[in-house]
Each structure stands twice: as C-alpha cells, then as structure tokens.
Amino acid sequence: MEFEKSAPEDRETEGPLDESEANPVRPYVDLGGVKILPREGLHLRLEVEEETQRVVAVGLDYAGSTLQVQPFAAPRSTGLWHEIREQITDQIQRQGGRVTEREGAFGPELVAEIPVAAAAGGAVETRVARFIGVDGPRWFLRGVIAGDAAVQPEAAALVEDLFRSIVVVRGSVPMPPRDLIPLRMPAAPTTGNENDYSSL
User: Fold this and answer.
1) What CA–CA distance (Å, rounded) separates 58 from 69?
2) SS3 of residue 187 by DSSP
3) pLDDT of 66 higher than 60
4) Which residues pair with 131 in a beta bridge?
5) Cα separation of 68 and 61, whole Å?
6) Which of 26, 68, 120, 179 is the most exposed place for a label (fewest CB within 10 A)?
7) Are 130 and 70 in contact (CB under 8 A)?
8) Amino acid 3: pLDDT
9) ∠ CA 106-6-98 to the nearest 5 degrees?
10) What whole-number distance in Å separates Cα of residue 94 and Cα of residue 81?
11) Could you tell me the maximum CA-CA distance found in the chain, to the nearest angstrom?
12) CA-CA distance, 156 to 140, in Å (whole number)?
C-alpha cells in the first residue's frame, strides 16, 4: 500500500530542508545524514549502538527538552510516515503504553504515554513523548520529543523550530527505503575560534 508524503506545506522553505534547499553559507554542524544549525543553549549528543559502534540517532537537548532525530531513506514519490506511525503505535501499546494521534505542527503526530519501570513497590510512572515525522524528497525525518516540549506549548514551539532547522543530506548512494541514512561524528572545526562549538 502506498501513502502520500506527509509534510508541512511550507517544508521546502521553512524546513526540515533537503540539502539542495539549504543555504550553503550557514554554519551547519555536519553529522553526515543531517546537518544541525548551532544555537544558544543547544547541546548535541550522538547515540551509538554498542555492538557496531554505529551512530544511530542524534540527540538534541534544548529548552528543557530532548529531541531525538533519525533520517531514513525513502522512495521518491511515496511517504513512510503513515506506515511508521502504525508501527510506533503498535510497539508502544505492546509495552502497555497509550498513544493518541493528533494534528501537530508537521501534520499527524503521535502523543504517547510510555510506562517507565518503577522502583520496587512504587507506582508505575509514565513519561510523555511526541513522535513527529516529515517526508522529504527521498528521505524521511523522524523526531521524538520528550521533556517540557512534550507537554508545554512554549517549549514545544522552540523544539519544533529546532526540528525545522535540520537539513537532511540524503546523498546519491542508492539505499533501500527505511534504511537509516548514515550519521557520523562532526569533523573538528578547523577554522576560527574553537569555542564556537562549546554550546554543542
């Protein structure tokens, strides 16, 4: 079954952008499959799979929240987000969580209440996470928002703006849809003041 792409109508100008749409002179931090625009108060973490030492996600700590992003290869004409939402819903429900679908800043999004292992004898706590996704040209960008931005509108607006500022670098290498576009450590800054990167 093929689905249309799911993306905000202004994605090509407001983001998340394809590499071909981004302003080449902006000082992006290059992480391979995505480029991130540094901003005050933003801390960057790379999530690495222990066995393979492969970078599997980029974690951005910002505005009392975390935004985890992953870029995937996608077909040129069809979208992945509709299908992936179903899989996420299924996965969370199997863990005993609850999922609500709603219309968000980027189109359909999922708000999940995920059970967190409780201390012995304590009540099971849940944490709220928002799953957002945007289908771009030949890529799909998934975001998971936790912390303040999952529940507070002001923080949500800041983190949504951060998600919009991401540039996806699909590259020209053929990849099957749903494969993670390779991510990597940023190259050390070679020019200018090294302190420029201290907020990452």
Assistant:
1) 5
2) coil
3) yes
4) 110, 144
5) 9
6) 120
7) no
8) 87
9) 65
10) 20
11) 55
12) 21
